[in-house]
Amino acid sequence: MRDVLHDGPGPPRRSFLTYAGGLAAAGALSACSMGPQSTNDVGGGGRDRTLTAVIGYGNDGSWDPTQTASAFSMAADNHLYEGLLDTDPVSRKPYPALATALPADPAATTWRFSLRAGARFHDGTPVTADDVVFTFDRVLDPAAHTLAGGFFTSWLEGVRAVGSRTVELDLNFPFPEGLSRLTLAKVMPRHVFSRPGAWDDAIRGLAVGSGPYRQSAHHPKSNTAFEAFSGYNGPRPAAFRTMNWLTVVDAASRVARVSGSVPGAQIADNIPYAAVDRLRSGGLTVAGASGMNNLFLMFNTARKPFDDIRVRQALHYAIDTEKMVQVALKGHGLPATSFLDEGNPAHRRAGTVYGHDPARAKALLRAAGVRDLDVELLAVNVSWIVDCLPTVKASWDAVGVRTTLAPQETTAVFTKLDQRRDYQVVAAASNPNQFGLDADLILRYNYGPANLWMGYTRWAGNPVARRLFAAMDRATRELDPAKKKTMIQECVDVVAEQAVLYPVVHNELLTAWDPRRLTGVRAQPYPGVNLLRAKWL
Predict the structure, then answer these.
(1) What are the Solute-binding protein family domain coordinates in residue numbering (predicted)?
(2) pLDDT digits (tens, 9 = 90+) for 499-518
(3) What is the DSSP letter of 154?
(4) N or C: which end of the chain has fewer CB within 10 A?
C-alpha cells in the first residue's frame, strides 16, 4: 500500500519523496511528541493499560487527510478526525459524526447540516461552520490537486456557512451516494491549517482533529501513539486510555508481536496466511474479510510494446492465477473476474476475463510481432505481493518472456513513478475500499483524465481512454440505480479489455486479536484497524 499524493492536471504538488521518503517529524509536532517511545505495551494492568496494535504498513506516508491513501494514516485519521458524516468500517453505512443528522432527502440538491453542540478540536477550540467550509474549499480547490477532490468535484458544487454551526452543501445534481463520501472530508481546524507551511506539517504527521483520540506522539518508521481526548462528546467515545500503533512491515515480526508467551500487542492486521493455524492454536481469533484488495499490473503505455493492447492482454492470460491463489495466498483469494471484486454490489463478470491460457498468450504476442521480450517487473515489497511474484515470473518465462523481478520498498517504487522515470510493468497492491464501496468511486480512484494513476500509465490521452472518461461521467449523473449499475459495468468492461491497470487476484485480508482481552473487534476488507467499537474485556 502506498500514499496517493496529487490528483489533477499539470505537475504534482510535491514529489512522492517529499511526502513519504525518510521524513523526520516536523517541528510543529514537538508539542505532542514524547521523545523516544517504547514500541512495547508500556501501560499498567487493568483497563488503563495501553492498547498496542501492530499495523503492517508504514506510518511515514502523508498524514494530510485530504491527500493521503496511506493505510496507516487513513486508519489513524478515522480515530483522530471526524467528517460531517462517518461510515461504519464494514457496512460503510453513513452515520452522523460532527453533523447531528443525515439529510431528510438524500436525493435533494442541497443538504443542510447542523454541527454537534460542544464539539471541539484537540487544542480546545470549538468546531465551527467556518472550519467545515475551509476543509471543503481545500478539497475542491483545483490548484490544491487533492486526492479527496477526485471523489467530490464531479457532483459537489460548493459548501457555505449559514450560521456559526450550520452549513449547506450545494450539489450539481442529485447524488445520494455522496453521503457515504462525506467521511472522506475530515474536518480540519482553519486556525491550524491555514498557517503558512501547515500543509507540509500535516504531511509529516501533524494531526489536530475533533475525534475521540488525539495524537500524543509520532515517530516515522516506528510508532504513533494516541490518548483519549477528554473533550470529545460525539457518538463513538474512546474506549482505551492510550493506544500505541506500531508500524511493522515484516510479516514474521508482526506475527511475533501478537503471539508467543509474552505478546507485545493485542491486535495485528495484514496477517500472513501461513501463520493462521499457529495463531489460532495459541488462542487468538483470526478473521478475514474479502473486498477490493488486489495485486494489480500497471503498464507504461508510452513504452513499446506495452502500448499494444495485445501485449498487455497476453501477459495477463499467461499468469497461472489459480496457482497463485493456492500457493502464495493459501486459498485466501480469487482470480480477478472483473475490475471489481466479486463481493461488490455492482460486480458481474467482465467481458474479458483473464483465465490461465498460455497458448492464447503466445498467439497474442505473435500477432503483435513481439519476440524475445525481456521484462523487468518493478514491484512493491509488501509481503503477500512478494509471495506472488515467483508465480508471475514462472508464468511469463513459460510463454517466452524473460522476466526479472525487482521488488523494492514501496516508497522507492513510487518515488520513481513520481519522478517519471522509465519503467515497463509495475506490480503493487491496491484497495480503493479504504475510501468506500460504490463502484463509481472505485473506478475514479484509478481511472480519470487527470488521475495520478493515469499519469503513471501515460494512457489518459488515448482515444479509448477519453471515451471511457466520458462514459464514467454519464454514469455518475444517472439517477436510475439499475441504469447506473449497467453503465458502470460497461465502463468496467472497457477497463478489463484494455488492461492498462488491472487486478490479477483479489485477496482476503486477515486480522488477528486476543479475544481474552478485546471485544467488539471486526475484521475489515481493507488495511488497518478500526477500534472505535472495541473495548477491553
Answers:
(1) 93-435
(2) 999 999 999 999 999 999 99
(3) T
(4) C
**Mean pLDDT score, 77-100:** 97
> What are the residue ranges of helices labelled H in 228-330?
251-258, 276-281, 309-318, 321-323
Pairing of strands 518-519, 535-536: antiparallel
Nearest to 440 by CA among 530, 519, 339: 339
How far apart are alpha carbons 48 and 45 in whole angstroms?
7
| Same domain, residue pair 263 and 303 | no
Q: For residue 486, tell me if it sits in a domain.
A: yes
Same domain, 126 and 243: no
CATH number at residue 99: 3.90.76.10
The answer to whether residues 299 and 457 touch, using CB atoms and an 8 Å cutoff, is yes
What is the phi/psi pair of residue 135, to 5°?
A: -65, -50
Both 286 and 303 in one domain: the answer is no
Please tell me whether residues 283 and 382 are part of one structural domain: no
Mean pLDDT of 82-104: 96
Q: Quick one: 319 and 416 in the same domain?
A: yes
Give the torsion sign (CA, 68, 74, 80, 83).
positive
CB atoms within 10 A of CB 71: 27
Same domain, yes or no: 283 and 183 = no
The count of domains in the chain is 3
State how far the alpha carbon of 290 is from the alpha carbons of 78, 123, 267, 297, 343, in Å: 21, 38, 19, 20, 7
Cell numbers describing residue 287: 478473521
Residue 45 maps to a domain:
no
DSSP string, 394-445: HHHHHTT-EEEEEEE-HHHHHHHHHTT---SEEEEEE-GGGT-S-HHHHHHH
Query: Between residues 105 and 7, which one has the greater pLDDT?
Result: 105
Same domain, 364 and 501: yes
CB atoms within 10 A of CB 236: 18
Q: Are strands 402-408 and 242-247 parallel, antiparallel or unpaired?
A: unpaired
pTM, whole model, 2 decimals? 0.86
**232 in a domain, yes or no?**
yes
pLDDT digits (tens, 9 = 90+) for 475-486: 999 999 999 999
For residue 411, the model assigns a pLDDT of 79
- 301 within domain boundaries: yes
Cα torsion through 10, 13, 18, 24, rounded to 10: -170
Contact between 272 and 250 under an 8 Å Cβ cutoff? The reply is no
